[in-house]
Amino acid sequence: MKQELFEAKGFCKFCDQGRMIKAPAGANEDELNELATMECTCDKAKHYQNKENKKKQCFDWIENRWSQDEETKRLFIQAACNIIEYKAKQVTIVKGEWKHVIDMNNDGLLTIKSSKKVDEEVSF
Ligand SMILES: [Zn+2]
Questions:
Q1: What is the pTM of this model?
Q2: Domain boundaries in the chain?
Q3: Quick one: which of 65, 37, 68 has its CA closest to 80?
Q4: 3-class SS string, 75-103
Q5: 44 CA to middle of ligand 1, Å?
Q6: Distance 5 CA to ligand 1 centre (A)
Q7: Which of 37, 49, 65, 115 is placed for a possible disulfide with 13 were both Cys, Cβ 3.0 to 4.6 Å?
Q8: What gap in Å lies between CA 18 and CA 82, rounded to an integer?
Q9: Neighbours of 77 (CB within 10 A)
Q10: Rounded distance between C-alpha atoms, residue 43 and residue 18, angstroms
Q11: pLDDT above 90 covers what percent of the chain?
């Protein structure tokens, strides 16, 4: 479905700079400001855009990876949100034999490491 876009004015949430943006019909003031913020070039807006883009990429990945498993998907989304919002430094999810560690490295990249317990010990 193609959504029709209209020219509208929004204001950056950080520097308050107004700009003309293309917005979907019926967008409210908050949505217009959000769009303007996503196009603004001030430092705070750039930081915000970076964070929002990262969030989107990460959620797309989670959505794909866990499309068959609602519960794990929910856990991952919650973990990623907490890390992106700096509420947690690292989150570990243990599911069956798998261990997933989600954290943000020093370059500000959100990383998800999954490992499977492969140790095997047999005694007789
Ligand atoms: Zn701005």
A1: 0.70
A2: 5-41, 50-123
A3: 65
A4: HHHHHHHHHHCCCCCEEEEEECCEEEEEE
A5: 7
A6: 22
A7: 37
A8: 31
A9: 16
A10: 16
A11: 69
